[in-house]
């Protein structure tokens, strides 16, 4: 019952804050909810200085939710599938070269640049974090968060090329980022001395390749089932089974669930909508997943802001986080520029596209969830603190200014 009451409170707060935003602020929903959640968290912290019992009560209730498990194990499957439904396969094919190179090579470049920067940065503050854990941090913070990106860029007037590259890359580099994080974590926590390049390569290929194959199987199965009937209630139920059952299956097969959901969502949103659904089913299924996406996004962004209550910040990690956030912008540009230059499509994209993709590369709940999933004692406290500062910076600073940047570059 406690969890039900907690989620009731979260939904009620999300509804109230969303109303305030739509009625008065008129900001992108992700920014407004996270901003108001952060303000609420700061208010709780301030109130806690006068009444420790109140602060402890709020913290106790928030700890009922394992944020990492809640996002990575539950929300992520719904949000990635819902986001992928709107991605046009023809647009992805046109931008396939840039999306794949940014999502793979770009993510790896950014991981190493961030890891190297953090390794030397913390030493300036008389801290020590081993390079392998800096790599872990680079893996969890490098991928752009598709949930944050799609939520905040909805109102931005982007060209089709830029929009396809940003959304397509964010959907795939999220899955790749989780695979890289899992691989590096295995290395960091493994007691095996013979865990070398072949073992790392096999683990990476099993996670990523297995996820893509699983997504194809889930997508084809859902397509065939939907095509054989015409009953929109059952077809929506089938799409739910694809997400929940498919994601659970990926977990037990130890393959990438995020990549599977992206592939299954793209198949359902393209081949499924075109060939397996009637007009009524297409309309109801689209509205169902749009509403689901909005509700879960509202809860997620609000929860990110409120999670500040349970993070014990050191002042020096606030400055490390801010400096790292600026380093992340530089690393982001390098990770886009180098593959574009190396593979010869930089001229086709243009400097404006790379600039918008750099500043529009937002981080969100996935980075926080991965940081919170670190084993206790594995420099978790330091990395979680820095991750929170960076996520707040990217959403509240970059998210606030990306539309102005787009308008200025378009002029």
From TrEMBL:
GO terms for biological process: regulation of intracellular pH; sodium ion import across plasma membrane. Signal peptide: none annotated. The keyword Protein transport does not apply. One of its GO terms (cellular component) is plasma membrane. The chain crosses the membrane at residues 6-24, 31-50, 70-87, 99-122, 128-153, 209-226, 246-267, 288-311, 317-342, 354-375, 381-402. PANTHER family: NA(+)_H(+) ANTIPORTER NHAS2, SODIUM/HYDROGEN EXCHANGER. Belongs to the monovalent cation:proton antiporter 1 (CPA1) transporter (TC 2.A.36) family. This is Sodium:proton antiporter. It comes from Panacibacter ginsenosidivorans.
């Amino acid at each position: 019952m406690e969890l039900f009451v907690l989620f009731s409170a979260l939904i009620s707060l999300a509804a109230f804050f969303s109303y305030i935003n739509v009625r008065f602020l008129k900001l992108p929903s992700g920014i407004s909810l996270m901003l108001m959640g952060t303000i609420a968290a700061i208010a709780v912290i301030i109130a806690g200085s006068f009444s420790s019992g109140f602060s402890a009560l709020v913290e106790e209730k928030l700890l009922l939710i394992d944020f990492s498990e809640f996002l990575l194990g539950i929300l992520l499957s719904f949000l990635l599938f819902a986001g992928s439904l709107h991605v046009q396969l023809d647009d992805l094919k046109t931008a396939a070269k840039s999306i794949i190179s940014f999502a793979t090579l770009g993510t790896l470049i950014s991981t190493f640049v961030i890891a190297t920067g953090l390794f030397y940065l913390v030493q300036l503050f008389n801290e020590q974090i081993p390079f392998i854990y800096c790599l872990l941090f680079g893996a969890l913070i490098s991928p752009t968060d598709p949930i944050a990106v799609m939520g905040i860029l909805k109102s931005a007037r982007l060209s089709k090329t830029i929009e396809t590259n940003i959304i397509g890359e964010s959907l795939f580099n999220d899955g790749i980022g989780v695979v890289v994080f899992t691989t590096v974590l295995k290395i960091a926590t493994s007691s095996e001395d013979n865990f070398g390049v072949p073992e790392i390569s096999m683990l990476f290929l099993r996670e990523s390749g297995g996820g893509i194959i699983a997504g194809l199987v889930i997508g084809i199965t859902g397509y065939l089932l939907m095509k054989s009937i015409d009953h929109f209630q059952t077809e929506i139920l089938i799409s739910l089974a694809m997400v929940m059952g498919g994601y659970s299956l990926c977990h037990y097969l130890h393959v990438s669930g995020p990549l599977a959901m992206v592939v299954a969502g793209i198949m359902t949103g393209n081949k499924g909508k075109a060939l397996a659904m009637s007009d009524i089913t297409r309309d109801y299924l689209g509205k169902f997943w749009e509403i689901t996406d909005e509700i879960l996004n509202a809860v997620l962004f609000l929860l990110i802001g409120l999670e500040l209550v349970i993070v014990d910040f050191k002042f020096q990690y606030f400055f490390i986080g801010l400096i790292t956030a600026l380093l992340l912008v530089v690393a982001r540009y390098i990770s886009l520029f180098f593959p574009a230059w190396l593979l010869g499509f930089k001229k086709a994209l243009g400097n404006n596209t790379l600039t918008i993709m750099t500043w529009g590369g937002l981080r969100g709940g996935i980075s926080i969830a991965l940081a919170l999933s670190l084993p206790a004692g594995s420099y978790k406290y330091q990395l979680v603190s820095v991750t929170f500062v960076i996520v707040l910076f990217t959403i509240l600073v970059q998210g606030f200014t990306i539309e102005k940047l787009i308008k200025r570059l378009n002029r």
